[in-house]
UniProtKB/TrEMBL annotation:
Source organism phylogeny: Bacteria, Pseudomonadati, Pseudomonadota, Gammaproteobacteria, Enterobacterales
Organism: Leminorella grimontii
Gene Ontology biological process: regulation of DNA-templated transcription; regulation of nitrogen utilization
Full protein name: DNA-binding transcriptional regulator NtrC
MF-aspect GO terms: ATP binding; phosphorelay response regulator activity; sequence-specific DNA binding
Cellular component terms per the entry's GO annotation: cytoplasm
Length: 473
């Protein structure tokens, strides 16, 4: 059997070298190209078993190269890699026929395993993939953590289908955002996306909300009303907190999924609908099935494809980027200048527990936009409730003690500064001291300047002037 061959297309020589070294060590022959043009030219005379391409390169980019290759060699597995880890890149790659998506920086062993899987796929599969050349819309999902990359892969692989999906994740992890993304990146994107939260509706109204009702069906039903299934016809119905759905409604939902039709409450004529169901829950549905609180047959109907959303504490590397996004978004909503996170603040945020997940982080950023005194957000600006657990609170250096002996630390700082040849120490120390005192006082008074001025022993005008001088307005 001839040696398997992989072509590597990347304008970065370092990436080409790393992949060549790793794949050669795995007994794979490598041929490298620094541009898409040279790879396309070589494709006229030869063909690899797998092609790996960067997505952003001078001249022809990776997605354009992918499209051209699929026209000439529809069977050839193409792996797209990029340092720009976002959902749009992943979905675009899949929609244009990529075998898989490899975000940079990548683990070398993972890259080799992916190439070997693609080689095996090429040996077995001999049917061209369909290519959807519609551009991907934007999305609000943000994340570069490995767990989020897997979510992107699933969304990408589902982009050409309308199969049912079950999303599992703790409260605040962004389940509805993922449902929106599944809809936007699907053949039903032109249809409606209708959402219904089972936990937010009184149980005796859920049937009417889902299936609608006829005039006179019950007291107060003065006219015919369409339910969410009718509203979502041709599109997607998102059933959030599906675990809270009453058993009798579960039975009706199962019948709709099986037959594609239903009756309005009080109605006698069947209504046919074409609806994709995406369900979500923070609960353990398998456990609810065992406890006879959720129908097993409905569970299997919904659980065709499952997406497990990681809690924020399992994707800490995404926290700074998410926080910057929320600060910018909130500033735009309020028409104010966006706050900037100090590196120590990013570190503190990344170390917290975030029991409320992404939603809690977003709310924290909204609070900071309104309440943080200066443009730069320092660790002491963070809301006190974030430090409810001792492990969450930012720790002082081991050498520092704050038992009333801050003067000792100041003395030590002055000695070190003078030994280093510094002069004019007051002009350096006083602004920092005033800034710290101002920040703590404003946080203590929840932003009330008059009260903060009284705590500091200043007048209101003095506090206003100091805020301006220190750039804390």
């Amino acid at each position: 059997m001839s040696q398997d061959t992989v072509w590597i297309v990347d304008d970065d020589s370092a990436i080409r070298w790393v992949l060549e070294r790793a794949l050669t060590g795995a007994s794979v022959k490598c041929v490298s190209f620094d541009s898409a043009d040279s790879a396309l030219a070589a494709l006229n005379d030869d063909e690899p078993d797998v092609l790996i391409s960067d997505i952003r390169m001078p001249g022809i980019d990776g997605l354009t190269l992918l499209q051209k290759i699929k026209l000439q060699r529809p069977l050839l597995p193409v792996i797209i890699m990029t340092a720009h880890s976002d959902l749009d890149a992943a979905v675009s790659a899949y929609q244009f026929g990529a075998f898989d998506y490899l975000p940079k920086p990548f683990d070398v062993d993972d890259a080799v395993a992916l190439v070997e899987r693609a080689i095996g796929h090429y040996r077995e599969i001999r049917q061209p993939e369909s290519v959807n050349q519609n551009a991907s819309p934007t999305t609000d999902i943000i994340g570069e953590a490995p767990a989020m990359q897997e979510v992107y892969r699933i969304i990408g692989r589902l982009s050409l289908s309308s199969i049912s999906v079950l999303i599992n994740g703790e409260s605040g992890t962004g389940k509805e955002l993922v449902a929106h993304a599944l809809h936007r990146h699907s053949p039903r994107a032109a249809g409606k996306f209708i959402a219904l939260n089972m936990a937010a509706i009184p149980k005796d109204l859920i049937e009417s909300e889902l299936f609608g009702h006829e005039k006179g069906a019950f007291t107060g039903a003065g006219q015919i009303r369409q339910g969410r299934f009718e509203q979502a016809d041709g599109g997607t119905l998102f059933l959030d907190e599906i675990g809270d759905m009453p058993l009798e409604v579960q039975t009706r939902l199962l019948r709709v999924l099986a037959d594609g039709q239903f009756y309005r409450v009080g109605g006698y004529d069947p209504i046919k609908v074409d609806v994709r169901i995406i369900a979500a829950t923070h609960q353990n549905l398998e456990l609810l099935v065992k406890e006879h609180k959720f129908r097993e047959d409905l569970f299997h109907r919904l659980n065709v494809i499952r997406i497990n959303l990681p809690p924020l504490r399992e994707r800490r590397e995404d926290i700074p980027r998410l926080a910057r996004h929320f600060l910018l978004m909130t500033a735009q909503e309020l028409g104010v200048e966006a706050k900037v996170l100090h590196p120590d603040t990013e570190k503190a945020l990344s170390q917290m527990g975030w029991s409320g997940n992404v939603r809690q982080l977003e709310n924290t950023c909204r609070w900071l936009t309104v309440m943080a005194a200066g443009k730069e957000v320092l660790p002491q600006d963070l809301p006190p409730e974030l430090f409810g657990n001792a492990e969450d609170a930012p720790k002082p250096p081991a050498s520092a003690t704050f038992d009333g002996h801050w003067t000792t630390l100041l003395e030590r700082w002055a000695e070190q500064a003078l030994s280093a040849g510094k002069t004019d120490l007051l002009s350096e120390a006083l602004p920092d001291m005033e800034r710290i005192l101002l920040t703590v006082a404003l946080r203590h008074t929840h932003g009330h300047k008059q009260e903060a001025a009284q705590l500091l022993g200043w007048g209101r005008n003095t506090l206003t002037r100091k805020l301006k001088e220190l750039g804390m307005e």
